[in-house]
Specification:
This protein has 272 residues and is mainly alpha-helical. It has one domain: Vanadium-containing Chloroperoxidase, domain 1, CATH 1.20.144. It is built from 11 helices and 3 strands, in the order H-E-H-H-H-H-H-H-H-H-H-H-E-E. It has a 3-stranded antiparallel β-sheet, with helices on one face. Helix 4 packs antiparallel against helix 11, helix 7 runs antiparallel to helix 8 and helix 8 runs antiparallel to helix 9. It starts with a helix and ends with a strand.
């Protein structure tokens, strides 16, 4: 062990003093068996992550739940408001942009383009964004599906007049009641959180993606498909899952060969 540490120290010293480094892509940021395996192995840590939450994170979660409890009393009023303010222009915006956006008709091709760009230019960052999006979207899809079929909440358009208090629970013969939480909203906020996490140094990126995700949530209420509480919880879950996956530090290990007149070796760099 001492010899290993000595070699590493010598490697670092030679690298700093005399060595010439030739940085190369570690080539570990790609869709391979390791990544496929991580889709399964990283899910459990996500589920149990609240155990390790900080005080601030618990306060944030409590704030969301408290807001949802208050909003729950206003679900009917909000739904009535949206339905009394419909216009042809908003109908078309929802039909041709926001509904497809929530179904990932736009984001999936975009992330595919990100990965291809990263692969062809030997740039890990776009590949990592695309891979994290796939992983986070998979987790969001599983979680929202399970929650929908535990709750079986009636959608606004399924209740005339609007009644937000109809929940069938997990035991029901009618599986069409899947309002809670909003699937479109969780997926768009998952996308926004992943992209914003990776490009937080460019302020316009988080502003743009979170604005689009917020408008998607509003569009779901406008379309009478979801209650306001469905959207709030869906957005919070998407943000939490996307941020968690985006911060998992995938693909950051890089390998640098060190060549000098005195030593040849490898240096491994992992930014924290």
């Amino acid at each position: 062990m001492r010899k290993l540490l000595l070699i590493l120290l010598i490697t670092i010293n030679i690298n700093n003093a005399w060595g010439q480094t030739m940085p190369i892509d570690s080539n570990n940021c790609k869709v391979d068996k390791v990544f496929i395996k991580s889709l399964a192995t990283d899910f459990t840590p996500l589920i149990i992550s609240p155990i390790h939450w900080s005080k601030g994170e618990w306060i944030g979660a409590g704030t969301v739940l408290g807001s949802a409890a208050i909003l729950y009393t206003q679900d009917k009023t909000i739904a009535d408001f949206w339905q009394s303010n419909r216009t042809d222009a908003l109908d078309n915006a929802n039909k041709y942009f926001f509904d497809p956006f929530g179904k990932m008709y736009f984001t999936l091709p975009l992330m595919g383009a990100f990965y291809i760009y990263g692969a062809t230019t030997n740039n890990n960052k776009p590949k990592r964004v695309a891979m994290d999006f796939v992983q986070a979207s998979l987790y969001s899809g599983v979680i929202v599906t399970v929650m929908k079929h535990i709750a079986h909440r009636h959608r606004p358009f399924q209740t005339v007049p609007h009644n937000p208090y109809l929940w069938d629970g997990p035991v029901t013969d009618d599986w069409s009641h899947t309002s809670f939480p909003s699937g479109h909203t969780i997926m768009t906020f998952t996308f926004a959180a992943v992209v914003a996490t990776h490009y937080k140094d460019k302020l316009w990126v988080p502003i743009t993606v979170y604005s689009l995700a917020t408008m998607e949530g509003l569009a779901r209420m406008y379309d009478d498909k979801h209650w306001s509480t469905d959207v709030l919880i869906g957005g919070a879950l998407g943000y939490a899952i996307g941020t968690y996956v985006g911060n998992r530090n995938h693909c950051k290990l890089t390998t640098i060969p060190i060549i000098s007149s005195n030593f040849t070796g490898l240096s491994f760099t992992y930014p924290l």
